[in-house]
């Protein structure tokens, strides 16, 4: 829980106190609604023999207590030390009042206010107590797919407004039965004011449909019938917490391939939900830290290293089609009662559970939407009638150096804010194009939305707009500015520029990357920034992506960049990495690439190869890029790892996956040109090709490339330190999702005496752009005042 000793003891006013009596008003801010905070306060007041009251307000929880001074003091200490497990206290403000005895302690109805500074809880996995009741035949919650309490269940995805009360959620239409109402009203009950509280008699229900919309079965029977469909190899669309999943048995090769064909998702890995942690360990190598992540209340997808083909005696391996050419598997555990019941009814330990959507569209949330969008994919639909108000994908996390770093931040983590170093003006930042998120700031809080997706179609733009409206409403914020990317063709940029009521601030893409690290790590003053990704719009009209920067909150200066490569065909080169490989070889050969590297060229498509060479010769449709991501593409294609990609970053991902342990490295060059340090990887590529011709295994070549690239980056930062005197380094960009490179570079920099800052709360990919944009925009607003 956050907070300082000062915030514990802050008080206002000094009224006369009786020798033994004390009365105080308390305001608690943080995640304190919908997490069992009021019943905890009630029980603490009873334990300490205090009278008074507690209630929810839009600015947090308000408390008044009166009693013996020693008991009041003990009560205030317990507010911090004995808060419920899902609470996150940011501050406790205490105001002394004239002493008046209070005979009872009451929980009052929620009270409205114009100051909405409370924090909304994320959705939380089903707790152990509810799971125990779910499988207890003597409990009235036995087998109920929506069992929950104040320690678990849906939150953010069902909230329409705050304060967090039932009438302001999608549960409003379900009137509680007498038994549920009794639990809801009893401060000593685990379900006291659990807003989604319900049962078979009064709450949401489930049913099974075919693709034509015919209802096949309902209730308990629907679960059994759904499992029968899975046994038959069918694809099941399952309505979950923040959207739909598409489920199929994970060890059936042809079943998984059928899902790929129907979803038009050729090779991008699917996530696998396992029955329990023991099942995960049969298929994956799991460290204690990874076990803790898997079982955390957030229940993210965790990238784990696969075990070998034979995962254990009698165990059928996970189908290769789940994560082709990948040593890692995205594994997660059941997080809703419905998930637990599906596994209980089925013979399976592992089910593919991938986002329920068509290719490149947002995850589906509504029943009618599922019927129209997923009918060509799913063979049956397991539906329910609890509405999802806001879509929220599963989060993805990976351990880096023993510490978790998010790769996709969504369910379980949103809308917990990033706490900034200081309060400031409210701004709305609309992010980039890929892996889009938005960010709204309020005081010293930055609310980064869940993963929205790639802003390349109307459906995703609508999801983007809905998230903007939703966050502004529940936070009751009218931003002073809208921050956006420099790229004029991004849909987010175009949306921002259409908002006549808000002045706009443009923020360069890689400045935003590094600024996002400053924001979440609370760093003041300038740093050296290394921003490595696939593409970002540069002020000079070229495509940036391998940038060495001087950065503070409001400004940046380019200190260096990767050597330019040309991209034959522009965006087409991103989809066909062999084009970038030809471009790199063309530079190495001084133009006579056909004579210098015929053996490498002959591995690329013959007809298109001659066209690409002509484009390079004439510099026709060959934009310049300094992208580090494109260097990975070139190396991947030269080694024959990946010539064409079916998802973003695939060539780099598979190049890392191919790496085998080796201490060798290829040495690049760093030199000055036009007042910039140029990071030149071409000497590395020349050495790599020589080893390839000697028959060195591609896995060894990949490792030597990674080792050499880490050295090149470290040496460029050494030169920047000599020039600037700065020894603090911030690392950001999609390239830093590469575990091998990240760990090599961070260890090297620490060894050289640098202080290294990386992401901890938001992903290093473009999902962090909105946070960085907001941070820069706030700083520029400060400067203008």
Automatic annotation (TrEMBL):
InterPro entries named in the record: Acylphosphatase-like_dom, Acylphosphatase-like_dom_sf, Acylphosphatase_CS, Carbamoyltrans_HypF-like, Carbamoyltransferase_HypF, DHBP_synth_RibB-like_a/b_dom, HypF_C, HypF_C_2
Pfam families, sorted: Acylphosphatase, HypF_C, HypF_C_2, Sua5_yciO_yrdC, zf-HYPF
Signal peptide positions on this chain: none
Acylphosphatase-like domain mapped to chain residues: 23-109
Record flagged with keyword Lipoprotein: no
Record domain YrdC-like: where: 220-412
GO BP field: protein maturation
Family: Belongs to the carbamoyltransferase HypF family.
Protein known as: Carbamoyltransferase
Species for this entry: Desulfoglaeba alkanexedens ALDC
């Amino acid at each position: 829980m956050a907070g300082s000793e000062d915030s514990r003891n802050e008080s206002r006013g000094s009224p006369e106190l009786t020798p033994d009596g004390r009365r105080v008003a308390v305001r608690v801010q943080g995640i304190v609604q919908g997490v069992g905070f009021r019943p905890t306060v009630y029980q603490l007041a009873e334990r300490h023999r205090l009278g008074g009251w507690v209630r929810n307000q839009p600015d947090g929880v308000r408390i008044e207590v009166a009693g013996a001074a020693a008991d009041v003091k003990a009560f205030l200490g317990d507010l911090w030390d004995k808060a419920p497990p899902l609470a996150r206290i940011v501050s406790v403000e205490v105001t002394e009042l004239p002493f008046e005895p209070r005979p009872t302690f009451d929980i009052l109805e929620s009270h409205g206010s114009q100051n909405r500074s409370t924090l909304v809880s994320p959705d939380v996995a089903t707790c152990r107590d509810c799971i125990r009741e779910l499988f207890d035949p003597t409990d009235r919650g036995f087998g109920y797919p929506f069992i929950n309490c104040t320690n678990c269940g849906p939150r953010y995805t069902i909230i329409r407004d705050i304060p967090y009360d039932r009438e302001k959620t999608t549960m409003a239409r379900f009137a509680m039965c007498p038994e549920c109402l009794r639990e809801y009203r009893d401060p000593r009950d685990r379900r006291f004011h659990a807003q989604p509280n319900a049962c078979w008699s009064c709450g949401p229900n489930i049913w099974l449909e075919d693709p034509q919309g015919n209802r096949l079965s309902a209730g308990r029977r629907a679960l059994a019938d759904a499992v029968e469909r899975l046994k038959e190899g069918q694809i099941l669309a399952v309505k979950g917490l923040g959207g739909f999943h598409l489920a199929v048995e994970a060890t059936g090769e042809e079943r998984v391939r059928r899902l790929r064909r129907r979803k038009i998702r050729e090779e991008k890995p699917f996530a696998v939900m396992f029955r329990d942690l023991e099942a995960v360990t049969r298929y994956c190598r799991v460290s204690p830290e990874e076990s803790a992540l898997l079982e955390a209340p957030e229940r993210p997808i965790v990238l784990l290293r696969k075990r070998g083909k034979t995962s254990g005696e009698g165990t059928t391996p996970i189908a290769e089609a789940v994560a082709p050419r990948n040593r890692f598997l995205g594994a997660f555990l059941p997080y809703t009662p419905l998930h637990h019941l599906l596994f209980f009814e089925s013979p399976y330990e592992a089910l593919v559970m991938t986002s329920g959507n068509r290719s490149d569209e947002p995850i589906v949330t509504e029943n009618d939407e599922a019927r129209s969008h997923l009918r060509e994919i799913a063979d049956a639909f397991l539906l329910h009638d609890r509405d999802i108000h806001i879509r929220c994908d599963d989060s993805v996390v990976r351990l880096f150096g023993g510490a978790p770093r998010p790769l996709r931040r969504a369910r379980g983590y949103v809308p917990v804010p990033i706490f900034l170093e200081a309060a400031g003006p409210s701004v709305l930042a609309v992010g980039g194009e890929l892996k889009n998120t938005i960010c709204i700031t309020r005081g010293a809080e930055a609310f980064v939305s869940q993963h929205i997706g790639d802003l390349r179609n109307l459906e995703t733009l609508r999801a983007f707009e809905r998230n903007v409206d939703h966050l502004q409403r529940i936070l009751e914020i009218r931003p002073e500015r809208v921050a956006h990317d420099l790229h004029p063709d991004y849909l987010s940029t175009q949306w921002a520029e259409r908002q006549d009521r808000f002045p706009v601030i443009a923020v360069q893409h890689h400045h935003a990357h590094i600024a996002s690290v400053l924001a979440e790590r609370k760093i003041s003053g300038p740093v050296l920034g290394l921003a490595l990704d696939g593409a970002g719009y540069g002020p000079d009209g070229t495509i940036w992506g391998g940038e060495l920067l001087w950065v503070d909150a409001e400004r940046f200066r380019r200190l260096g960049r990767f050597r330019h490569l040309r991209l034959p065909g522009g965006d087409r080169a991103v989809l066909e990495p062999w084009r970038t490989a030809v471009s790199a070889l063309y530079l190495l050969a001084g133009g006579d690439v056909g004579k210098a590297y015929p053996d490498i060229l002959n591995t690329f498509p013959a007809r298109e190869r001659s066209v690409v060479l002509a484009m390079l010769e004439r510099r026709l449709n060959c934009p310049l890029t300094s992208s580090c991501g494109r260097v990975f593409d070139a190396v991947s294609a030269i080694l024959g790892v990946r010539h064409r990609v079916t998802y973003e970053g695939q060539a780099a991902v598979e190049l890392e996956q191919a790496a085998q342990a080796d201490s060798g490295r290829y040495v690049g060059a760093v030199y000055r040109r036009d007042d910039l340090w140029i990071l030149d990887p071409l000497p590395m590529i020349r050495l790599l090709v020589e080893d390839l011709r000697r028959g060195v295994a591609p896995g060894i070549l990949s490792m030597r490339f990674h080792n050499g690239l880490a050295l090149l980056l470290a040496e460029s930062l050494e030169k920047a330190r000599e020039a600037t005197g700065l020894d603090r380094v911030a690392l950001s960009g999609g390239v830093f999702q590469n575990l091998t490179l990240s760990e090599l570079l961070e260890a090297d920099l620490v060894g050289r005496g640098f202080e290294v800052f990386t992401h901890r709360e938001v992903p290093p990919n473009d999902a962090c752009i909105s946070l960085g944009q907001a941070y820069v925009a706030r700083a520029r607003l400060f400067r203008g005042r």
